Amino acid sequence: MPLYEDVADRLQDLVETGTFRTGQKLPSVRGLHRDWGVSKSTVLEAYRILEDRGVIEVRPQSGHYVKAHAQTPEPTTGVGPGLDVSDLMVRVTMRAGPEGFVGLGCGLPDADQLPLDQLDRLMARVARERQGHSYQMGTGHPRLRQALARRAMAAGCTLGPDDLVVTTGCQEALDLSFRVLCRRGDRVAVGSPTYVGLLEILRAQGIEAVEIPSSPRTGMDVDALAQVLPTVQAVAVAPNFNNPQGSLMTDRAKEQLVRICAAADVPLVEDEAYGDLGFDGSRPRSLKSWDITGIVLSCGTLSKTVSPGLRLGWVAGGRYTGQLARLKMVSSLACATVPQLTAAEFLLNGGYERHLRRLRRAYRDHVGRMSATVAASFPLGTGISRPRGGQFVWLQLPHGDALELFERAWDEGISVAPGPMFSATGGHRRCIRLNATAWTPEAQRAVVRVGALASGA
Ligand SMILES: Cc1ncc(COP(=O)(O)O)c(C=O)c1O
Questions:
Q1: How many helices (H) and strands (E) does the chain have?
Q2: What is the pLDDT of residue 94?
């Protein structure tokens, strides 16, 4: 292939993958000559080809620009019998797809409900005072750990700042936990359904997920877990408002869970991502609050209540805290300091409680409205979860297939999260998860439309 065609193809790839978007200027002839080591005439010829292909337009005296409609549509890899959970996760979690896309499938909080003005002000202050330019090796900034330790009191825990390791979101807290606890080939008991990101971590680490039934109301079946406990190296559970069901374990079940794991000396990783989002305003207890022997690794995050962009989570690692801190340091030295200090100020002095009260009220309202719309538009016999906290509505259809519904909704510009995404074995094929954080007229129309699709329209 002539070199100029190769250059043209590479440039077209950059346009199709969105490195350069509609209306944006492509590199200058001189710039490409320098960066890619090709002659200026080759670059000019490549640009001429792209003009012929309708990918770019030339603006005299200015340069080469991406033309409208040069971008290819979103990829729509089929999700069939060879279910690809990673692919599903990527597609579902993208909220802002093509214009007009309604992302009922994603897990993002509603940005309109987050305390962004306060965070901006606090971050500006941290930056102005030049506080954010040193490493906080391993465990994270002491001020944030102090704020988190105080906050953990609401979940019944007694923690010191040194019991905590700050992480890049709850995702890293979970990842580090299993890297400390497990080896390739180990088995971990997980709720079913469970958070797709957890399944991805286990898969990436070569760990087998052993699924334990989880009820939409009361979460993991502890008796069923007890049966498999001797055959697993760890347990992963989200006791409070789990993703995707919004279930809440009773205190009795939580206590029993910690007791049997302690007796079997099996570490217990709890995911507390949604624990602060109880609709009645109370904060349910963490498993950590019953942990006397140090076997509970309690992972949390500010992503769901403060801002996912801060990328701040933590793990209270019990007897594993030292190993977690070392591993955190080995993998990334530390989390960024400016977000840590901003978050610490917000938690200690910024009215986090007041903000939480508003957020819980809004989500309770949105979940209620979404549930009512589902009840009115989905086929008779659809099961609705009625969660007492969190941000999701979990549905079980009376008939049909969630993956097919996912594809049909996707074709109409709506994402839903199909049940098999939350299972290591492709289970929950009649279930879908909807995100209720933002209840807008578009979201309502989309729910009605998915209900019609589920009814066979
Ligand atoms: C249950 C659960 N755990 C962990 C995470 C990861 O959150 P982050 O890494 O943003 O803190 C999420 C995000 O959706 C989640 O839903």
A1: 15, 16
A2: 62
Q: Whose CA is nearest to atom 2 of ligand 1?
A: 273
For ligand 1, atom 16: residue with the closest CA:
243
For the chain, which domains are there? 3-66 (1.10.10.10), 85-113+354-454 (3.90.1150.10), 128-351 (3.40.640.10)
Is 80 exceeded by the pLDDT of residue 83?
A: no
Q: Which atom of ligand 1 is nearest to the CA of 168?
A: 9
What's the CA gap between 431 and 443, in Å, rounded?
A: 19
Q: How far is the CA of 317 from the centre of ligand 1 (A)?
A: 17
pLDDT digits (tens, 9 = 90+) for 287-297: 999 999 999 99
Q: Are 188 and 225 contacting, i.e. CB atoms less than 8 angstroms apart? A: no
Ligand 1, from 108, 175, 304: best to mutate by most atoms within 8 Å of Cβ?
304
List, chain by chain if needed, residues with CB within 6 Å of any ligand 1 atom: 107, 169-171, 195, 197, 238, 243, 271, 273, 301, 303, 308, 313
DSSP one-letter string for 201-268: HHHHTT-EEEEEEEETTTEE-HHHHHHHGGG-SEEEE--BS-TTT--B--HHHHHHHHHHHHHHT--E
AA identity, residue 448 = V
CB 278 within 8 A of CB 360: yes
Place 140 in a pLDDT band, splitting at 50, 70 and 90.
very high
Element (H, E) at 434: strand 431-435
Reply yes or no: is the peptide bond before residue 193 cis, omega within 30 of 0: yes
Distance CA 370, CA 435 (A): 9
443 — pLDDT class (breaks 50, 70, 90): very high
Q: Rounded to 5, what percent of the chain is helix, strand, coil?
A: 45, 15, 40
Residue with tokens 């509505």, as numbered in its chain: 393
Substitution candidate for ligand 1 out of 108, 177, 195, 312 with most atoms within 8 A of CB: 195
- What does the pLDDT look like over 312-335, one tens digit per residue? 999 999 999 999 999 999 999 999
Nearest to 338 by CA among 108, 136, 109: 136
Among 90-94, 160-164, 278-282, where is mean pLDDT lowest?
90-94
Q: What mean pLDDT do residues 7-19 have?
A: 90
The 10s digit of each residue's pLDDT in 127-138 is 998 887 888 777
Name residue, tokens 């202050």.
125
Count of positions (residues) in the chain: 457
Rounded to whole angstroms, the Cα distance separating 314 from 168 reads: 8
For residue 56, is pLDDT > 80?
yes
